[in-house]
Amino acid sequence: NNSDRLYLAAVVFLALTASYAHYRHVSLLFENDRFFSHLSSLERQMSFRTEMGLYYSYYKTLVDAPSIPAGLNSILYDNVTEYPSTINVLKRFNLYPELVLGVGYRLYTGFLETMKFSGKSCFTVNRGHDQPPVQSCEGLGDEAYFYVMPIFALNGLYVGTLFIMCWYLGGGIFGGAVAVLCFFFNHGEGTRVMWTPPLRESFSVPFLFLQILAVTFVIKAQKLTRAHMMVLTAATVTFMLPWQFAQFVLLTQTLALFGCYVLRFIPASKMRFFLVSFTVSLAVNIVMQFANAMLVTSFYFACLLSAWVVLFAKPLFEKLRYFLVIAVCQVATLLSLTVACKHGIAVLANVQDDAHIGNLLKAKFFQARDFHTSLYLCAKEFDFIEFESLELLTKTLVLPCGFLVMLAIVYKVACSVWQEVWSGRAQEADEGKSGDGSDDLALDAPDASKPHAELLYHLLQNLAFMTLAVLIMRLKLFWTPHLGVLA
After folding, report:
1. CA pair distance 247, 285, nearest whole angstrom
2. How far apart are CA 331 and CA 317, in angstroms?
3. What distance in Å separates the CA atoms of residue 242 and residue 277, rounded to the nearest whole number?
4. How far are the Cα atoms of 289, 296, 352 from residue 347, in angstroms, in the given order?
5. Of 112, 94, 106, 110, whose CA–CA distance to 69 is shortest?
6. d(C-alpha 191, C-alpha 246), whole Å
7. pLDDT value at position 440?
């Protein structure tokens, strides 16, 4: 009815308002830090330091190439980065964002030339102190602005996604507003896009929370459709493509969803739905990244294979009859098969592209350092989380509120598990639904989760994010926004 439409329109309007506010906030912080609008073109390029300059250089290669095919060829067969070797940098460095922006800039400027528009305003900046003046331009017609402004816009939509997620989880408009405020009050702990826009996380993290929102939709859905599958798969693909670390985040997500399945908060058919989507997403990424060895030999790939085995072996596990015994055996089987598959695939493929991740963790706990791990640990971003970060999260109340919500969810889950153990209702329901399993396999069958299943998922996901943040401080950018969602 009209009142519902007005309410939904208000929700969308507030989400877009939050998105625009964050877009303006990070763009102004970036401008105030760099004085970007008054730098020359060369100075703007020089302002992208470390690996940021590397990523921007490939964008500029695409922009300056004689044609789009020539630019694409130059990054597919690059003989400069690791001279004299020729490498595919699109495969090596997850450069799809630069590919999209580079092609987009050429099409945009071509359109402007056709319409005889400038797309930018240029002016002369007088430096003083006997320094010569420089020419500077603003607007999307300038290649540097066309690179950074879409990043800020994407991260603006990221905050709107947080608003909608909290609204959908049952917090209403007030809950969405609280999540946005939590993010702004802990802004430095939740993002660094305003200081380092070209980093892979700046492109990937906004799609992560869009993907988590899609997962939440699927968990709460009473009937799964192909639209759910398409949205979830697309969100997962767009999250994985820009960042090689995305596979580790999706590993934690698979484990969190598997925990919901083991505790019988989501049915087997819904777990199968997630595995189909994640498997298709991973296959698409492997193809688009030219069979990237780090994906093929990843723990995430091994975990998906192991989860399929556990799911198909459901009738065997149910013969154990006791809920806790079944749960422990399923978890133990998943973890052991994951480790075995990971090492088996790595040995067969003779690939150890992600060995530095394990070496980094060993160096943290056992001081077994080599050159590469020492190089990583020189940067505080890869050290354990600082006490200062925890203190700030406590002062803004997001950490205490988040922990209170976690305790409330644990209480609800414990009550449900207690009923599973002692009443035997779950086992009777499974036996009553056994049959030929055709409804369970159907894509559009009604597959209702238990009440509060989505809250259990967010609890497990937040615990995983917290673990990542404690081990590697840089990854607090996952934990802080999601902690605001719980709060």
Report:
1. 10
2. 11
3. 19
4. 21, 12, 8
5. 106
6. 16
7. 41
Q: Which two tokens stand for residue 443?
A: 């894509």
Tokens representing 275 are 């595995």
Q: Work out the mean pLDDT of the chain and round it to a whole number.
A: 87
Whether 215 and 232 have beta carbons less than 8 Å apart is answered as: yes
pTM equals: 0.89
Range list of H helices, 224-370: 226-240, 246-262, 268-288, 293-296, 299-312, 314-318, 323-349, 355-366
Element at 25 (helix H, strand E):
helix 2-34
More confident residue, 176 or 446: 176
The total of other beta-carbon atoms located within 10 Å of residue 342's CB is 20
Q: Give just the sign of the alpha carbon dihedral 312, 314, 315, 320.
A: positive
Query: Three-state secondary structure along 171-216?
Result: HHHHHHHHHHHHHHHCHHHHCCCCCCCCCHHHHHHHHHHHHHHHHH
CA–CA distance, 48 with 199 (Å, rounded to integer): 10
DSSP symbol at 170: I
426 has pLDDT over 70: no
Each residue of 24-69: pLDDT tens digit? 999 999 999 988 988 888 889 899 988 899 999 999 999 999 999 9
Start-end of H helices in 35-82: 41-46, 50-64, 68-76
Q: How far apart (Å, rounded) are the C-alpha atoms in residues 52 and 318? A: 52
Q: Please give the helix or strand (H or E) that residue 476 lies within, else none.
A: helix 476-486
Phi, psi of 142 (to 5 degrees): -90, 135
Q: What angle do CA 114, 198, 209 make, to 5 degrees?
A: 100
Closest CA to 214 of 306, 307, 278: 278
For residue 87, list its beta bridge partners. 78
Q: What pLDDT does 182 receive?
A: 93
Q: How far apart are CA 29 and CA 36, in angstroms?
A: 10
Query: What percent of the chain is predicted at pLDDT more than 70?
Result: 89
Q: Would you place residue 356 in the very low, low, confident or very high pLDDT band (cuts 50, 70, 90)?
A: low
Q: Which residues contact 120 (CB under 8 A, 6 or more apart)?
A: 137, 138, 139, 140, 141, 142, 145
